Amino acid sequence: MPIAFDNNVAAAWQVRLKAAYVLLPGLINTCIQRMTPGTIDWPLYRTWFDPAGNANMANVQFVRRVFSTLGQWVAGKTLRFFDATGNATDDPAFCAYVWMLSATPESSVSHVGSGVRIGISGGMVRATWTTKDVAALITHELVHKLGGECGQPIFDNAPGYGRVACLAKALAPNPILALTNADNYRLYLKQANGIPWIGDL
Q: How far is it, in rounded angstroms, from Cα 101 to Cα 171?
């Protein structure tokens, strides 16, 4: 489970991100368990992805594949953080800006070797966020990369952040809005692991 930092990431943030990344496999594993065929936590799944749930097993299989691939990916790929402060406008509603880049700022999803680079604007992340909240935020970014590998790109479908927007996407006539929105996966992971909400987040 390699993790690395560019030189511009503050030492305090390195400590916090390392701690979050240590917790991440266990949090993901809980999600995988709740998506296990035969014992799927249907109320949880329907809340964040599709009220009809098992009416469309292809959607269920996609979400299961994302979490399973995420678990495998975290176990064997390199995750590198860099300081992205000032590189883009922070989302005031989310109070954090974490993004993945390739060599050029125009790219939103990184495919750098066997791993991924995540830029973090640490000054915008709320001090009240726990280590598990930071781990969930990392999950949000990683599913951007893994969605395409699982057969359907995952974006930030505006409005894409927070419980209000994500619950609305899950209730939309077309559940693809939730299945392809990264924050729905972050919030599923939070609820699956009993991580307390912070306001709308």
A: 31
Question: What pTM was computed for the model?
Answer: 0.87
Q: How many residues does the chain have?
A: 201
Residue 172 one-letter amino acid: A
Helix, strand, or coil (residue 116): strand
Cβ count within 10 A of residue 107: 13
pLDDT digits (tens, 9 = 90+) for 11-62: 888 888 899 989 999 999 999 999 999 999 999 999 999 988 888 899 999 9
Do the beta carbons of residue 131 and residue 20 sit within 8 Å?
A: yes
Please report the domains of the chain, with CATH numbers, ordered by start residue. Answer: 3-192 (3.40.390.10)
CB proximity list for 22: less than 8 A, separation 6 or greater: 1
